[in-house]
Write a structure and sequence with these properties.
- This protein is an all-alpha fold.
- Helices cover 56% and strands 0% of the residues.
- The chain has 23 helices and no strands.
- The longest helix is centred in the C-terminal third of the chain and has 21 residues, at 310-330.
- It is globular.
């Protein structure tokens, strides 16, 4: 059984989207390598705060039907550059029960293993459901600090939490809470101020309407500069915070429309991510935008958890929408080009989703590509009931499988795997033009 210190994948919990007939041996191998990662590797693989993605990659491969040998191959490829974990300070672990000491140590990477051990102990005593509600959703100062940090680091903490909840792994949940605790909180004022402003919004606009507004606003759409170190923090929130809050607050969610709004959020993220192309340059996906897509699947998982109240589910989803809108603006708000999707000519047009999945299982990376393919396949399923003529859902029909082809074709193509900051011309300079037959 999975515990706060033991990872054990199960065929009973194969993921929000998963292929049929997953092998029991894959669960065994996946559990073994995830356990080794949990015990021996740090959550960041370098001193710059780059994230260890093994706890994302392995469950994704498992859900997509990877063989034991494929799982172990990818693990071995990615364990080589990880940092070793550090021993926790047991005196500090006990002191973290004091809310003032807990708050004092937030945002400092050197305390990751201390927070991890603390959350493991709490989960062992109280269970992960109570721990999530107490330390992330309770609404007091401590929980608010953890909650906003979940959306820091390009959504990595909440992605990590999503994997823990989706695959029923308390140890990964403990990692996620500890990871959030050592992230910065600068995204917090934006999320909380937007939430306050949204409470005064009479009727919600759609996310795609707001994307259009952001793109049309000359101040906001150009607030991020190419040289900014962090284009959300140093661009959008430094040069146009009021504009960003004004637009984001126009999107609201209520407990009565959670499923529909989750599908809308997913569709909008795929729309601005898949459409952010730069013809005649080769097809590439933006590295920052894909995190908006890759994290979308977990909001379907959150909806299924009875221990999360409707109000908490609403808040989690609203914050995701606010973050996506800021992320879109931060890459110079490029016009999503739907014709780049609808007119896309796949490298292997005869392949269905099954073929796309098989190819991404063999693709060597840290898991971003396989997460993207799985999130796209899941998005297709949850958006189907809402497609029709609804303009809120601009991705529909065979555009989903075309996006799957675009994703795998692009990562197999020449040049850097991901374009970084797709709305800037500078981001595309090193990429090749497409062959004329593809223009």
């Amino acid at each position: 059984m999975a515990t706060a210190s033991k990872i054990q994948l199960s065929l009973d919990h194969c993921g929000e989207f998963h292929v049929p007939n997953i092998a029991a041996e894959s669960a065994v191998t996946g559990s073994e390598v995830l356990q080794e990662n949990h015990e021996t590797h740090h959550i960041f693989f370098n001193d710059s705060g780059f994230h260890n993605h093994i706890a994302h990659h392995i469950p994704t491969l498992f859900a997509l039907g990877a063989s034991p040998s494929t799982i172990r191959k990818h693990y071995n490829n990615n364990k080589s550059y990880q940092r070793p974990s550090k021993a926790p300070r047991y005196d500090l672990i006990q002191n973290l029960h004091d809310p003032s000491i807990f708050l004092e140590h937030l945002g400092q990477e050197q305390y990751y293993t201390d927070y991890l051990a603390f959350f493991q102990d709490e989960i062992n005593q109280k269970g992960h459901k109570e721990v999530i509600n107490t330390y992330m959703l309770k609404g007091d100062e401590r929980a608010e600090e953890v909650l906003v940090r979940m959306y820091a680091g390009f959504l990595h903490p909440i992605i990590h939490l999503g994997f823990g909840i989706e695959f029923h792994q308390p140890a990964i949940i403990a990692e996620a809470l500890a990871q959030a605790a050592v992230h910065d909180s600068w995204i917090g004022p934006y999320l909380l101020e937007t939430e306050k402003a949204a409470a005064k919004t009479a009727a919600s606009k759609s996310l795609v309407e707001i994307l259009d507004q952001i793109r049309a606003d000359p101040k906001l759409s150009t607030a991020a500069h190419w040289e900014d170190g962090n284009k959300v923090r140093d661009g959008i929130l430094a040069r146009a915070p009021d504009e960003m809050i004004k637009y984001a607050a126009q999107w609201t969610v209520s407990p009565s429309n959670l499923e529909e709004k989750t599908a809308e959020m997913t569709n909008a993220a795929v729309y601005f991510t898949g459409g952010a192309q730069h013809p005649p340059k080769q097809i590439k996906f933006d590295f920052y935008y894909i995190h908006c897509v890759n994290s979308s699947i977990f909001f379907s998982t959150f909806l299924k958890q009875p221990y999360l109240s409707p109000q908490h589910k609403t808040r989690l989803l609203q914050f995701k929408g606010y973050l996506d809108l800021a992320m879109y603006a931060s890459r110079r708000a490029p016009q999503p080009l739907l014709n780049e999707i609808t007119h896309y000519h796949p490298k292997h047009p005869q392949q269905s989703w099954d073929g796309i999945i098989q190819r991404v299982l063999e693709h060597e990376d840290d898991g971003h590509a396989s997460k993207l393919v799985r999130a796209l396949r899941h998005g297709e399923e949850i958006c189907k009931p809402y497609e029709g003529d609804d303009d809120r859902f601009r991705i529909k029909g065979d555009m989903w499988v075309k996006l799957g082809h675009m994703a795998i074709d692009s990562v197999e193509d020449t040049g850097d795997t991901w374009v970084r900051s797709a709305g800037f011309d500078e981001a595309w300079e090193k990429y090749e033009d497409r062959p004329r037959a593809q223009l």
